[in-house]
Amino acid sequence: MKIEIVPVWKQVTPELAQELMAFWRDNKAIGDDAAAAARALQAVCIARDEAGTLCGVGTAVVKVLPRLRQPMHYYRQYFAKSLRGHHQELPFYLRAKQVLQDYNAARERPESLGILLEVENGKIAAAYRRAHEPSFDATFIGYSPRGLQLRVSYFDGAELLPPAPVRGPAVAVRGAQQHDPSRIQPASRRGNVRS
């Protein structure tokens, strides 16, 4: 299956937000309209099939994990069933990472040092057993409260920032929506890579 990967970071229009909300609702991924509306504004890239139909999305929000005390983009990726099994997960993720890296490189002070992944998909977790996976440049750092692999992938040239204060399981940075990885509502886990 051929897809078009479209960067939309910080450029989500009201029309695209509505399309994303419908996409998640139709795929039974996010049923709560308020949660879907908030998540839509976090879109990094979207995937469209040859007919132009939305079939995938990657989202990110800046979080500070207490063990790292550094801001990271907590990244989630969701594909419609029609896109799963077509080996688009890695190319899509790599494009989204590049978009976030370019955004951070253009800032006077980086918003994040890289990407934080919580791997929900059991097949993906089983396929990636090495502590460091060169194919997506992600390093294992432990398990989430839900027992899922946590991995980080740093942006090129990332330098440590002053340690952030510890305020709980995961804290939001610069007004980003707070998210505790232990409270992710399992919608449809198949096809998901969550950070």
Secondary structure elements and pairings:
Layout: E1 4-7, H1 14-26, H2 33-40, E2 43-48, E3 54-64, E4 71-79, H3 89-105, E5 114-119, H4 122-127, E6 132-133, E7 138-143, E8 149-154, E9 171-172, E10 193-194
Parallel strand pairs: 4-5
Antiparallel strand pairs: 1-2, 2-3, 3-4, 3-9, 4-10, 5-8, 6-7, 7-8
Helix pairs in contact: 1-2
Question: Can you walk through the features of this model?
Answer:
The chain has helices at residues 14-26, 33-40, 89-105, 122-127; strands spanning 4-7, 43-48, 54-64, 71-79, 114-119, 132-133, 138-143, 149-154, 171-172, 193-194. It has 195 residues and is α+β, with helices and mostly antiparallel strands. The chain has one domain (55-194). Strands 1, 2, 3, 4, 5, 6, 7, 8, 9 and 10 form a 10-stranded mixed β-sheet that branches. Helix 1 (14-26) crosses helix 2. The longest helix is centred in the middle third of the chain and has 17 residues, at 89-105. It is globular and about 45 Å long.
